Amino acid sequence: MRKVVVTGLGALTPVGNNIKDMWESIKAGKCGIDYIKRYDATDYKVKVAGELKDFSPEGVLEKSELRKMDEYIIYAICAANEAINDSGIKIDEEDPYRCGIIFSSGIGGIGTIQKETKRALERGYERVSPYFIPLAIANMGAGNVAIKTGFKGICTSVVTACASGTNAVGDAFRQIRDGYQDVMLCGGSEAAVDELGIGGFTSMHALSTSDDPNRASIPFDKERTGFVMGEGAGVLVLEEYEHAKARGAHIYCEIAGYGATCDANHITAPLEDGSGAAKCMELAIKDANLSPEDITYINAHGTSTRLNDKGETLAIKKAFADCYDKVLVSSTKSMTGHMLGASGAVEAIITALSVANDVVPPTVNYKVPDEECDLDIVPNEARKVTVNAAISNSLGFGGHNATVLFKKLDA
């Protein structure tokens, strides 16, 4: 099996529109959740979200292109552009058929669906935009990124709800490790902070209705009441080690393990005993030829819902057994909100940066301990520790579980 390394990163998040700004915000414990500005939420139950701030695609996309793209596609292209530039990959120096893309979105163009449905009801269904379908379907993030980058290898879109971004990273890792590709661009994007997206999650009582931005997304806190919607994109460039070394690429760390399971239990609720997620972590650790004792940090799925945080706590205890209280745990959704199909990609990036920089991010705004979530959750302030290996968890509606493992490079 071939060694796989991380050579490029790109991010567009509620706490920063690029990798540098995002990472500085994450280390500082900056919360990117605020009152919704995209629409008037005065008469709605949910009033806060993790929206992008001062974002502009200028310099990456032309105005003529923007009309043919949903926001989630725009986010995907902008984050991918940063990751490619960061990696130094030049497609005209590569075999394009050995460079692939696996890119996810949990929902796809929901903003376009809302807009065009309104137009159809007002003007007739045959008057919707001719770009409606390619703006709305969830694979067009991957498709448009391929068009922009010239990558001609495998190009697929993973749709596993909130596990999508992590599955995309894990599947891309295997493509390289098993010899099918040399370079993979992977990640996810989401743009669901609109009335339809927020309304759908509100009606199923999944979102926090707190009107205090600092007490809305509070993973593992006893007063948690639901998650906060976020938006944005995360992209990683993965590369076969010898290929990266030959071109003198900067290497952040190694990606060494991947686990994927399904609870096969319920359309939205995780298994109460956490067994499905536990097995997923066990598989990722085994895949990397490591043991639980080798893991310094877990970037938890940590949504701030009652069921998830309790279930994930039990999962960590099952997977780590006697050493569960020695592993550091945090949920960066406390800062970004839940970015749905982009969350796993952004959290994989944060986990990779944790390994590269020996910093464990905090769970911010944590105040009230929950005896059912008795983990070392690194509350409120980052910790400077040696991070030899770390995992990132994602758990999606439909019972999808995914874990990726990053470690320091053994050159």
Note the topology.
Blueprint: E1 4-12, H1 19-28, E2 34-35, E3 48-49, H2 63-66, H3 71-87, E4 99-104, H4 110-123, H5 132-136, H6 140-149, E5 155-156, H7 164-177, E6 183-190, H8 195-203, E7 232-240, H9 241-246, E8 253-262, H10 275-287, E9 297-299, H11 306-320, E10 328-330, H12 333-336, H13 343-357, E11 359-360, E12 383-384, E13 389-396, E14 400-407
Parallel strand pairs: 4-5, 4-6, 9-10, 9-13
Antiparallel strand pairs: 1-7, 1-8, 2-3, 6-7, 8-14, 11-12, 13-14
Helix pairs in contact: 3-6, 7-13, 10-11
InterPro entries: 3-oxoacyl-ACP_synth-2, Beta-ketoacyl_synthase, Ketoacyl_synth_AS, Ketoacyl_synth_C, Ketoacyl_synth_N, PKS_Beta-ketoAc_synthase_dom, Thiolase-like
Pfam families: ketoacyl-synt (PF00109), Ketoacyl-synt_C (PF02801)
Enzyme class: transferase
Q: What do we call the CATH homologous superfamily of the largest domain?
A: Thiolase/Chalcone synthase
What is the number of strand segments?
Answer: 14
Gross morphology: globular
Rounded mean pLDDT score: 97
Low-confidence stretches: none
From the N-terminal CA to the C-terminal CA, the straight-line distance is 15 Å
How many domain units?
2
Tell me which CATH architecture of the largest domain applies here: 3-Layer(aba) Sandwich
How would a crystallographer describe the biggest sheet? 10 strands, mixed
Fill in the CATH topology of the largest domain. Answer: Peroxisomal Thiolase, Chain A, domain 1
Which class of secondary structure composition applies to the elements?
alpha/beta
> What is the rounded Rg?
20 Å
Number of helices: 13
What is the spatial order of strands in the main beta sheet? 5-4-6-7-1-8-14-13-9-10
What is the H/E string?
A: EHEEHHEHHHEHEHEHEHEHEHHEEEE
Please indicate the percent range of residues in DSSP E strands (runs of 2 or more): 15-25%
